[in-house]
Design brief:
The structure holds 2 protein chains of 2 kinds.
Chain A lengths: L3 E4 L2 E4 L5 E7 L6 E7 L5 E8 L5 E2 L8 E7 L2 E6 L8 E9 L6 E4 L3 E5 L1
Chain B lengths: L2 E3 L4 E5 L4 E3 L2 E3 L4 E8 L5 E7 L5 E3 L5 E5 L4 E6 L8 E9 L7 E2 L3 E6 L1
Parallel strand pairs in B: 2-12
Antiparallel strand pairs in B: 1-4, 3-9, 5-6, 5-10, 7-8, 8-9, 10-11, 10-12
The chains are: A mainly beta, B mainly beta.
Chain lengths: 117, 114
């Protein structure tokens, strides 16, 4: 089945540094990738939508300059948390839809646990 | 815009008892409906989805859900739960056109008690 490989699965970084999270679609072309953030014991909140070859669309309240999204190819989308601070600590998950409206399914990465110290 | 309401944040249930996790949605357009399960520190696993056709959908691990258009509901059920079913369950909806993101409910924590 369709797989999205997300790396790293967990990362600890110092405050002020940047962290890059990668999501690769292994056996299908992901023209769109959704990036979600999940706080402990809470639901997934959409941060941004990336489309291959174009600028990402960010949800209201998400800082574009802090969360840089790049979707340079049909198989790779990246999220870079710049100048990370402890409040950026969270679980980040990517998701790629397959088929119109996701009727073939939404494939999720396994998530990245980011801890900023 | 679409929205999803999961009425119960936590559901404790004894092992081998039946369970129902409730989900209601709101949308002005046709939608697809999904149930996902999440184990601690893991991504989401699809349990089942409703696209069209039969309103009773069967998924993995013995789960099923019934789409009720008049009540805008998509409740998840399992006739007999196991300890291993303890997890967070999310109901989600997408618009059935274009590349639109899933909109998730707040989740229901299912705790199976031995």
């Amino acid at each position: 089945g369709a797989v999205v490989s997300q790396h790293p699965s967990w990362v600890i970084c110092k405050s002020g540094t940047s962290v890059k999270i990668e999501c690769r679609s292994l056996d299908f072309q992901a023209t769109t990738m959704f990036w979600y953030r999940q706080f402990p014991k809470q639901s997934l909140m959409l941060m941004a939508t990336s489309n291959e070859g174009s600028k990402a669309t960010y949800e209201q309240g998400v800082e574009k300059d802090k969360f840089l999204i790049n979707h340079a190819s049909l198989t790779l989308s990246t999220l870079t948390v710049t100048s990370a601070h402890p409040e950026d600590s969270s679980f980040y998950i990517c998701s790629a839809p397959r088929g119109e409206g996701g009727w073939l399914g939404y494939t999720f990465g396994s998530g990245t646990r980011l801890t900023v110290v | 815009a679409q929205s999803v309401t999961q009425l119960d944040s936590q559901v404790p249930v004894f092992e081998e008892a039946p369970v129902e996790l409730r989900c209601n949605y709101s949308s002005s357009v046709s939608v697809y409906l999904f149930w996902y399960v999440q184990y601690p520190n893991q991504g989401l696993q699809l349990l089942l989805k409703y696209l069209s056709g039969s309103t009773l959908v069967k998924g993995i691990n013995g789960f099923e859900a019934e789409f009720n258009k008049s009540q805008t509901s998509f409740h998840l059920r399992k006739p007999s739960v196991h300890i291993s079913d303890t997890a967070e369950y999310f109901c989600a909806v997408s618009v059935n056109s274009g590349n639109t993101p899933l909109v998730f409910g707040k989740g229901t924590r299912l705790s199976v008690i031995a």
